[in-house]
């Protein structure tokens, strides 16, 4: 399936954020002069402008003339950017960065970046002025992956909630009317046991309804469900197929948890850590399994920049596999005799001079064009209806993609012999 035109995938957007953040982290200011502002979706733009105006006037108290000028310039630049927005920030908020960064030799450069709609909503307004930009909250958002359903229960109480990335959100709870094991006088033992089982069954149904209401509408976004509680409650609950069948299929595992109040949801996430890590990597693992199968026994594997690029251009690539940790640029060298070469260089390295692979003519670095390798490849992919998958390096075959295959591979639609 190809992404809709003009709408880059979540993975691709994350990569673009990642790249900007890595650049922003490299910068520092000689004084406390780099401004970062986190704007949550419910903050009015006019309030942000008012805050920036206030900071601008307070900055006049800064003793160092250079720092004062730099801070005020940064704030002016941010105000200029805010003019492009109406009353409301974008849907998930935005983050603004501006400041005079050191470029060496006592010189500075004015840098302004606006990141709209980060992977998660900006939670609260933050104004931060420092010798570095504040990138940590954004970095946390990028690390966070996945949406999971959480259920904890025993025979008395149950809680359901979400795990979004690393954040636990308790949502609903229920308590049962299941009587204790001690029966009252005058009740027959048999009748008491039957009533108790009925009450337990009713309670499991109630918990399942609570989970269904919450999780079924999100079942296509849901990466899995964890169920926790003491034995045998959680086992009875799962074995009894109380949950909606589509949810039942999403259960990643059941875990012993002592508490079934809200704190039990947190315990459940701790207990299920390994299952969660596996689930997060499942899709990446499957892609790499397919790649290696094709590499060893099939004809549909391609890898390395040149080969994968050729196949992409032919429209022969079904899925483009790119290592999340690939940090290279494509340098295009046009020699005076009309030959074109492409070389990959590290993103932080300077462009080297180049000898044309066809005629041996030297192409100087300043005549070369340079573009981020991932942007280059994903653009080609988008033009040919190829799906791009970013592959984590947190498992062995993912690491191999980066180290043994240059971080670039693909699974073909048909064999091309390239
Ligand atoms: Zn040449």
UniProtKB/TrEMBL annotation:
Residues 5-143 form the eRF1/Pelota-like N-terminal domain. Belongs to the eukaryotic release factor 1 family. This is Peptide chain release factor subunit 1. The gene is prf1. GO terms for cellular component: cytoplasm. One of its GO terms (molecular function) is translation release factor activity, codon specific. Its main location: cytoplasm. Directs the termination of nascent peptide synthesis (translation) in response to the termination codons UAA, UAG and UGA. It is found in: Cytoplasm. Keywords: Cytoplasm, Protein biosynthesis. NCBIfam families: aRF1_eRF1 (TIGR03676). Heterodimer of two subunits, one of which binds GTP.
